[in-house]
Design brief:
The protein is of the alpha+beta class and about 210 residues long. The protein folds into two domains: about 90 residues, no CATH class; about 80 residues, no CATH class. The protein has five helices and seven strands, in the order αββαβββββααα. Strand 5 and strand 6 form a beta hairpin. Helix 1 crosses helix 3 and helix 1 packs across helix 4.
Length: about 210
C-alpha cells in the first residue's frame, strides 16, 4: 500500500468515525432498550385535549387509501399546526371517524376527526427522550412502507440512517486496510477478527439449528 493511499485512508477512517459517533450512539443505546423491552421513565405525560370545529376536510377523504389518504390528511394537519410523522390512519366507518397518531420523536399527538361534524379532538402526550431514541431507531423500518417517511424531517433521518450504514461499511474496510500495513498488529488483529467471526457464526448457527 502506497504511503499516500495509506495516509488518505487513515484520515478518512478517522474523520468518518468521528462524524458517525453520534449516530452510532443513538442506534446502540436505542437497541439496548429494544432488546430488553425497557425504557426509563416510560410513563408518558399527557397534556390537555382540545377540540377544533369547522375543519376544512378534503371531500371523499374516507374513500382514499395509502399515501393518497396521508397526503389529504397532511393538508388538515398543516391547517391545525400539527407537525410530525403520520404512523397510520384508522378509519372507523360506522362512526365516520379518522383516528390519526402523529409522532415527533419524544411526543405523540392523536387526532380524532369526526367527518360528519367536521370537528377534531386533539390530544398530546410527551413520551420522553429515551422513547424518542427508540422511535428514531425504528423509523426507517419495513412496516407500512407505502405511507412511511411522510414528514420531511423523518425523510432526512432516513437518508442519514442510510449514510450511517454505508459509512460503517467504509470504516470496516478502511480499518482492515490500515491494520494490514502494521506488522506489529497483525497477530492480535487476526486473533480478534477470528474471534469476532467465530462469535457471529456461532450465534447464527445457534439461531437456525
Amino acid at each position: 500500500m502506497g504511503k499516500r493511499f495509506y495516509a488518505v485512508t487513515r484520515d478518512l477512517h478517522l474523520y468518518a468515525g468521528l462524524f458517525l459517533a453520534p449516530f452510532v450512539l443513538v442506534f446502540s443505546v436505542s437497541v439496548f432498550f429494544l432488546v430488553h423491552s425497557w425504557i426509563p421513565g416510560a410513563a408518558s405525560e399527557a397534556g390537555a385535549a382540545r377540540t377544533v370545529t369547522g375543519l376544512q376536510i378534503p371531500s371523499g377523504i374516507e374513500n382514499l387509501d395509502g399515501r393518497e389518504r396521508v397526503d389529504a390528511v397532511r393538508a388538515v394537519l398543516d391547517r391545525l399546526g400539527v407537525a410530525g410523522e403520520v404512523g397510520f390512519i384508522r378509519h372507523i366507518r360506522a362512526e365516520r371517524r379518522l383516528v390519526i397518531p402523529v409522532t415527533v420523536p419524544g411526543r405523540e399527538t392523536t387526532l380524532d376527526i369526526h367527518l360528519e361534524t367536521r370537528t377534531a379532538v386533539i390530544s398530546t402526550r410527551t413520551t420522553g427522550i429515551w422513547d424518542a431514541l427508540v422511535a428514531l431507531h425504528k423509523a426507517p423500518g419495513p412496516h407500512l412502507v407505502a405511507i412511511r417517511m411522510n414528514w420531511f424531517p423523518m425523510r432526512v433521518w432516513k437518508w442519514l440512517a442510510d449514510a450511517t450504514v454505508w459509512l460503517i461499511f467504509f470504516l470496516s474496510v478502511s480499518g482492515i486496510c490500515v491494520w494490514a500495513v502494521l506488522p506489529a498488529e497483525r497477530r492480535i488483529g487476526l486473533l480478534l477478527i477470528g474471534a469476532g467471526a467465530a462469535s457471529f457464526f456461532g450465534v447464527v448457527y445457534a439461531l437456525i439449528r
